[in-house]
């Protein structure tokens, strides 16, 4: 029996195991594809290790639009296979694998003309609904008149919008989901260590037999031995192929996508909104009591670890959203901004990134070494299965089949029953029902571990900030159970304060550091350094964004 807990003790023992044990599979990269591969391989009964150079989901997997969707716009590219596959994954996540994390969300497709557009978009959405087959976790699309739209979405321009079609997709806190997949992999025996970077390959002849890694916290070198190494490095793939002196079958082009976050009051609508733009689509997505609006799609060649939105990105998003909104969004409505990099698999670097396929590629550039890149968040499980299927051939022995289609993530077990008992949980715990709902939607049945912390230390029941839903116990838990190693890990990924709170949550950094310090065994110097590191990160982002966000500081 293994534990899903990712705390400091677990990391210490992971570091020592990495250097002393022989693994079947070593995964490089703790984005959704890497942790998905670790879970897939561990649940086949293989001995698995995963190393991540930063934090779980620190790359693209915390910076997406957070939609679990079939990809409506791929229908226009006649990519029916991709849409059907993604809709199947959407259904699995909402109903079985992680219903506590992945929730249905309705979107309005506004129409600006009465007949032709309604027929065209309606046919597309009927096909979208039909492609999911007999699976029915989400309602069928619905045609709405102008009168209905005025009631549902008063913020849509009455002079322009003649009606709409409402359809359903799903949404997720991507970083939290990726961390939950990592914990589920640990639950099935995978050894997981963050802040460990793959530096070079260990070879026997031409065969890759492991990786020389560096523990970035201690500076210690670790030689990790594995029958097969799987690289899931997203936009770092080209860089690592070069570092490892491999000739890959594909290149990864980077495309930047930015989002803005505005308060709930800035857009008056009971459903999300999707708007066609000249290059793609723009989503206005409900996010708790806020809205996430994006995204952009521009070629990118800067720093992979810290992609920043620019003033131009933000202006583009405002301009596109304001084509259909009245009153219009203003720059001083913006609470937060974030940007991410799409890893787009390309054979020809000069291709324009918008037109590249979102499908994934599995490659085997050397014996014992397999890599994967591309795809989308929604289909991570399929990608993980595909890359592990290829990697196990390198083990040259019989192995088990993937079982992840039937394997709920930690926290999913019993979620639907707990959801019906939230009043009772609230009464017994002293929390209000809204907070219990918030905890169930973030932790599922692992809420019991949060409640245990509160029983031990009742003051952890308090809110971190009266305007935000997080309680102090969740901050402690982030370090004790969810692998957070820094203030940035907690603010940017275990919670989403970096874009949900004003001024990137800087005013909360000190208190967060004080809460996690005893868990991580920090000295007062280390505590201050972690706060300073987050402050510097925010300052760098603000410089790139110009003075735009200063109005909200
Ligand atoms: C703006 C935007 C919006 C998107 N929206 C959606 C959406 O709504 N729905 C959807 O389905 N998909 C969406 N996507 C796509 C989706 O987010 C990505 O396909 C997915 O997150 C990629 O995951 P990954 O694991 O391949 O890469 P990453 O998450 O980037 O993971 C790669 C990891 O490798 C690590 N790494 C790099 N070098 C090393 C090393 N030397 N040693 C160890 N580790 C290393 C990195 O630190 C990183 O954590 C979006 C993407 C973007 C950019």
Automatic annotation (TrEMBL):
Domain Alpha-glycerophosphate oxidase C-terminal, by residue range, is 402-527
**Organism of this sequence:** freshwater metagenome
User: What is the name attached to this protein's record?
Assistant: Unannotated protein
Q: Which Gene3D superfamilies match?
A: Alpha-glycerophosphate oxidase, cap domain (1.10.8.870), D-Amino Acid Oxidase, subunit A, domain 2 (3.30.9.10), FAD/NAD(P)-binding domain (3.50.50.60)
Please give the Gene Ontology molecular function terms for this protein: glycerol-3-phosphate dehydrogenase (quinone) activity
Tell me which InterPro entries the record gives: DAO_C, DAO_C_sf, FAD-dep_OxRdtase, FAD/NAD-bd_sf, G3P_DH_FAD-dep
Task: Name a single GO cellular component.
Answer: cytoplasm
The upper taxonomy is: unclassified sequences, metagenomes, ecological metagenomes
Family under the similarity heading: Belongs to the FAD-dependent glycerol-3-phosphate dehydrogenase family.
Per UniProt, which keywords does this protein have? Cytoplasm, FAD, Flavoprotein, Oxidoreductase
Cofactors (names): FAD
Give compartment(s). Answer: Cytoplasm
Question: Alphabetically, which GO biological process terms does the record hold?
Answer: glycerol-3-phosphate catabolic process
Task: Outline the extent of the FAD dependent oxidoreductase domain.
Answer: 24-348
């Amino acid at each position: 029996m293994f534990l899903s807990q990712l705390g400091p003790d677990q990391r210490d023992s992971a570091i020592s195991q990495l250097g002393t044990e022989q693994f079947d599979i070593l995964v490089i990269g703790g984005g959704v594809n890497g942790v998905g591969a670790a879970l897939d391989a561990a649940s086949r009964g293989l001995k698995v290790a995963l190393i991540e150079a930063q934090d779980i989901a620190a790359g693209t997997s915390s910076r997406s639009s957070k939609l679990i969707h079939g990809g409506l716009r791929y229908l226009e590219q006649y990519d029916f296979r991709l849409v059907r596959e993604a809709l199947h994954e959407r259904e699995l996540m909402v109903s079985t694998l992680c219903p506590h994390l992945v929730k249905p969300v309705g979107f309005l497709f506004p129409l600006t003309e009465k007949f032709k557009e309604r027929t065209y978009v309606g046919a597309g959405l009927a096909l979208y609904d039909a492609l999911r087959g007999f699976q029915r976790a989400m309602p069928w699309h619905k045609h709405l008149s102008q009168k209905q739209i005025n009631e549902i979405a008063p913020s849509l321009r009455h002079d322009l919008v003649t009606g709409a079609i409402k359809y359903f997709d799903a949404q997720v806190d991507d970083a939290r989901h990726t961390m939950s997949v990592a914990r589920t992999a640990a639950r099935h025996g995978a050894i997981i260590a963050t802040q460990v970077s793959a530096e070079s390959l260990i070879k026997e002849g031409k065969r890759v037999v492991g990786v020389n890694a560096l523990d970035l916290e201690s500076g210690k070198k670790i030689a990790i031995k594995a029958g097969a190494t799987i690289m899931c490095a997203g936009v770092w793939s080209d860089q690592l192929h070069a570092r490892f002196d491999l000739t890959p079958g594909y290149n990864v082009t980077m495309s930047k996508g930015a989002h803005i976050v505005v308060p709930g009051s800035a857009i008056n609508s009971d459903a999300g909104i999707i708007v066609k733009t000249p290059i793609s689509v723009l989503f206005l997505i409900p996010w708790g009591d806020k809205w996430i609006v994006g995204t952009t799609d521009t070629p990118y060649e800067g720093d992979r670890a810290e992609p920043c939105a620019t003033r131009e990105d933000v202006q583009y998003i405002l301009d596109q959203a304001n084509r259909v909104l009245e009153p219009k969004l203003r720059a001083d409505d913006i609470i937060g901004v974030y940007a991410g990099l799409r890893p787009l698999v390309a054979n020809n670097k000069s291709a324009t990134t918008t037109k590249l396929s979102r499908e994934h590629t599995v490659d085997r550039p050397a014996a014992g070494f397999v890599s994967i890149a591309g795809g989308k968040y929604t289909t991570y499980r399929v990608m993980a299965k595909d890359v592990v299927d290829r990697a196990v051939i390198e083990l040259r022995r019989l192995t088990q089949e993937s079982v992840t289609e039937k394997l709920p993530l930690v926290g999913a077990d019993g979620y639907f029953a707990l959801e019906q008992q939230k009043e009772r949980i609230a009464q017994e715990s002293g929390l209000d029902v809204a907070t219990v709902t918030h905890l169930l939607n973030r932790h599922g049945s692992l809420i019991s571990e949060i409640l245990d912390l509160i029983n031990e230390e009742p003051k952890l029941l308090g809110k971190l900030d009266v305007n935000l839903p997080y309680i102090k116990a969740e901050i402690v838990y982030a370090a004790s159970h969810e692998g957070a190693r820094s203030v940035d890990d907690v603010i940017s990924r275990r919670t989403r304060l970096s874009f949900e709170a004003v001024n990137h949550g800087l005013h909360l950094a000190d208190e967060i550091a004080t809460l996690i310090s005893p868990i991580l065994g920090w000295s007062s110097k280390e505590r201050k350094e972690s706060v300073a590191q987050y402050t510097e990160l925010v300052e760098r982002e603000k410089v790139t964004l110009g003075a735009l966000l200063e109005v909200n500081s």
